[in-house]
Amino acid sequence: MKNRYSQRVSVDCSVMFAGESMVAEGRILDLSLPGCLMESSKTLAAGEYIQLRLFLPDQQAPLHVELAAVRWAEDSKVGIEFIRTSKPEQHRLEQFVHRTSGCDTSSTLNNQGVLAGSVQNEKQL
């Protein structure tokens, strides 16, 4: 198994997500800068694109991920890669992961709000 390039933190928070002609909800079980592990009764398939609204336990407005990709799905669990989010939302995510993990969470964000780098082993999201 390959090492992660970003710290993963355990969380338990609600998420609303939307894709082409569907809106559903679920739970985020863990979170990292490039993605998350989500659990939902809604069936999703690898390759689908969705938008997310994460209700983090920081008592702020939901964190909006403009574009995310389903990288793998197994039963009710889904590995999600964040593809595009605004710079302020990316900064908030970095701060949340940093506070929760106690580790350095520096990352690179390009001008379009896309996290630089990609996950080589998709199940490691």
Automatic annotation (TrEMBL):
Gene3D superfamilies: predicted glycosyltransferase like domains. Signal peptide: none annotated. SUPFAM superfamilies: PilZ domain-like. Residues 4-97 form the PilZ domain. It holds the Pfam family PilZ. GO terms for molecular function: cyclic-di-GMP binding. This is PilZ domain-containing protein. It comes from Nitrospira defluvii.
